[in-house]
Amino acid sequence: MRLNTISGRFAALTIIFVMLAEILILLPALASFRLDYLYSRLERAQIATLARLASDDTLADDLESELLQNAGVFNVVLRRPDLRQLVLSSRLPGPVVETYDLREDGLVQTIDDAVGTLMNRRNDVIRVIGSPFNQTDQLIEITMDTASLRTAMIDFGLRLLLLSAAFSILTAILLNLAVQRAVLVPIRRVIRHMVSYAQAPEDPRHIIIPDARLAELRDAETALEAMQKTVTSSLKQKERMAQLGQAVAKISHDLRNILTTAQLFADRLEDSGDPKVKRAAPKLVNSISRAVNLCETTLAFGKAEEPAPTLSRFSLAHLVAEVIEAESLALKAAQVEFLIDIPSTLTIRADRDQLYRVLVNLTRNARQAIEGTGQPGTVEIGAGESDSEWWIRVGDTGPGLPDKAKEYLFKPFSGSVRKGGTGLGLTIAADLVRGHGGQLNLVRSDGEGSEFMIHIPRDTVILPVRQAMAAL
Known about the structure:
Blueprint: H1 6-54, H2 61-71, E1 75-80, E2 83-88, E3 96-101, H3 107-119, E4 125-130, E5 139-145, H4 147-199, H5 215-268, H6 275-302, E6 312-315, H7 316-329, E7 336-341, E8 347-350, H8 352-373, E9 377-385, E10 389-396, H9 403-407, H10 425-435, E11 439-446, E12 449-457, H11 465-470
Parallel strand pairs: 3-4, 7-9
Antiparallel strand pairs: 1-2, 1-5, 4-5, 6-8, 9-10, 10-12, 11-12
Helix pairs in contact: 1-2, 1-3, 1-4, 5-6, 7-8, 8-10
């Protein structure tokens, strides 16, 4: 049994606490033993006085010495209310240093006298007064040495400690067996489940089923079960995301080639003689260019890499106008109104294409939320700047987000509230904003609508790719 195990430490603590309890009991026990020892000397002395009083007035010296030796005392005095008679006597080895009247000693005083006797290594002569047979009209007074008393007390204390140690060891063994059966066996079962689960965490058959009888262990098993289910679900979700990433990468690769061809044909539309086609051609070329760029960044995302932003100065109002124009084309009915509150002179330093993607995701979510209600509503995009940052606000008058959506808002495949949505839009948007060293926050979401705020610092710190993704 090792001390670095629960059973070993439990056994050691049991022995320690039992021994401490026995030590606390030892002092009253020694005090009681000391009283019994003194009363036994008084009883022997009283018997010796009876023998002396029953004899003639003269008593042989050798017989008197034998009576005193059997009683273990030096002198015996018989005390009555009107008489104090020296019955037996011998030569004292020294002066009397202390007198103890057993009729007056309380518990505390008795314990103090017992400790004093143990601590005093000298062989002193003491006087003891008491009535061993509770005869109120007669007292026995004796003188005796303390060496024999101290020796007897030490012997009694050692025997008591040895007996206590034996009981402590026996108690520790019994308690250890009980703990082994009641606590350690269920704990070892939980450990076996954890080891088995660690070998194949994606297999739900290895998830523990709580069945412990102890409430605490059952709570631990229940918590372990919930954690294992969460981990298993997350592993399955990550596996599906990896498979989806591979599929998207393949599609994006082929789609990029198709869009590149379409981009070549769209370039020729600028030479068209039709004024309407000529005006629409640049917008078509820009849209196809963004699609090609999106395919390329999707391929990079499939490699767990989001390209670092390419910073440039541009008019934020013009960029937002492009976003609104693109979203206006996707309106199902004229029930969503777009409002822009951005100074025309406001310029921002960021990656134009990445910020376009961020604003498209936020604006599209707001538009779809309003369309889902079937009621008219507005989407407002505002912006401003301070000495330390640029901020962009995107708000709507939609129905707001459910609590579950708020909890998993920026987690992939978890934050979508629209049927058929993937929940990737806000995840990607938050990732892109973090790449600029900024933050995308949900300011409010209630029955009056939702509001998101983008913060981009003027002193832009471009985060490393892995750090930006890990921040999600």
